[in-house]
Design brief:
Blueprint lengths: L2 E5 L2 E3 L5 E8 L8 E6 L5 E7 L5 E3 L7 E6 L4 E6 L8 E7 L2 E2 L3 E5 L2
Parallel strand pairs: 2-11
Antiparallel strand pairs: 1-3, 3-8, 4-5, 4-9, 5-6, 7-8, 9-10, 9-11
Length: 111
Amino acid sequence: EVHLVESGGGLVEPGGSLRLSCAASGFTFALSPMSWVRQAPGKEIEWVAYINSYGVTEYRDFVKGRFTISRDNAKNTLTLQMNSLKLEDTAVYYCSQGSVRGQGTRVTVSS
């Protein structure tokens, strides 16, 4: 059974940084493409960043240059480094393997 546990969210001022982590288990992590998605208050879920099993990454335009997705296959961990955070980055962030998501971690960007 796929199990994903996100952590690292919190309250940060605009321009600040956060590092999200996702601990994965129940599947062969090293072979799985992974994503970060988010859901802002009152909005639909949107994907943010993607990394395949070879480490090739893709980003939505609104986070390019600010967010970095990475993976540590030895530790079955997915990471999202978020820099230069904006108010509109406020959301619950989920790591995703296919259609499965974790419980999410809340990121609030506020002054």
